[in-house]
Amino acid sequence: MATLVLDNGAYTAKIGYSLEKVSIIPNCQFRSKTSRLKTFTANQLDEIKDPSGLFYILPFQKGYLVNWDVQRKVWDHLFGKEMFKVEFADTSIVITEPYFNFSLIQESMNEILFEEYQFQSALRINAGSLSAHHYFHTKPTELCCLVVDSGFSFTHIAPYCRSKKMKDGIRRINVGGKLLTNHLKEIISYRQLHVMDETHVINQVKEDVCYVSQQFYKDMEIAQMKAEENTLMRDYVLPDFSSIKKGFCKPREEMVFNGKYKTGEQILRLANERFAVPEMLFHPSDIGIQEMGIPEAIVDSIQSLPEEMQPHFYQNIVLTGGNTLFPGFRERLEAELRSLAPAHLPVSVILPENPVCYSWEGGKLLAHTPDYDEMVVTREDYEENGHCICEDKFDI
């Protein structure tokens, strides 16, 4: 029987059969300014000639799956002929859901998977649990790990001991990639150019030029300098979707500091925005969100756990999710944790090679474990016992 692993994130779906490679596909629908009437789903984004003013229709709001119509259309597209050609009667699915998901959402998901699509069996699980499984698989001698999952809607910190999550230690910070992109849109719109409708383009800008500062105040001083002295300044060429399909950063030696560029390119000049936006992951209070940053939340999580286990968690902190890809993120987090943690305990923060697909890879490994058949709910079980069998089996 084939096993399909779907890490159903709020921004991208990571999907693939357990014997194949992963595909990363936008988990949403789009409408563009140029063709208002047509709706594009998932990877049909590539068909849009002019993605300026792209309007996103997301199935997730604040990290929870609320728009089932959009989600169904995305899944129909993923499971359909163009993509994975799923034979539902012979396929088992591993699908992720957020921590502390609402029971109504869980019931709807059970119904759709078993009654509409009629999968042979299903396993609903947190993405962090798959990441922990992956970590323990690569380091079988370790007993504990702390998964830091910084995604589109939230950042979750979740401790695991022997693949069991410790619910008392789970922390959530309401800062994710969506908030960072929106904040960057506001800053650029206020200072330079109205880009509030350009989510797609500014998200690309964020991924291309933002980084996590190691010394925030020192970088702030550099960012205030004029012309060539400002070594942090970058000029970003915005796409016009005719000759320039994708925005890019101008090489430093081609930057013009006094006067204008000869070419008709539209330029964004970025200085302190480059590091002030990702700084919100460490200091949400900078923009009025009264919450702890990631380092404090990690320490708070570890301190809520039994004392004899704490050293193990400090030594096995695993980063997953798109925000951990900012250059300097791991180094800054490790430095801040070092200053907060007890002096005698070693601190180690691990950034996997591909933090975005790390939990998907964990699902792939899980599908090949001997216990897998014990963990799933089959369609027969579901038809006989209803939702209660899922609640008993899935430790969410």
UniProtKB/TrEMBL annotation:
It comes from the Eukaryota. It is found in: Cytoplasm, Cytoskeleton; Nucleus. The keyword Ribonucleoprotein does not apply. InterPro entries: Actin, ATPase_NBD. Keywords: Cytoplasm, Cytoskeleton, Nucleus. Pfam families: Actin (PF00022). Signal peptide: none annotated. Gene3D superfamilies: 3.30.420.40, Actin, Chain A, domain 2 (2.30.36.70), Actin, Chain A, domain 4 (3.90.640.10). GO terms for cellular component: cytoskeleton; nucleus. Belongs to the actin family. ARP6 subfamily. This is Actin-related protein 6. It comes from Amphiprion percula (Orange clownfish). The lineage of its organism: Eukaryota, Metazoa, Chordata, Craniata, Vertebrata.
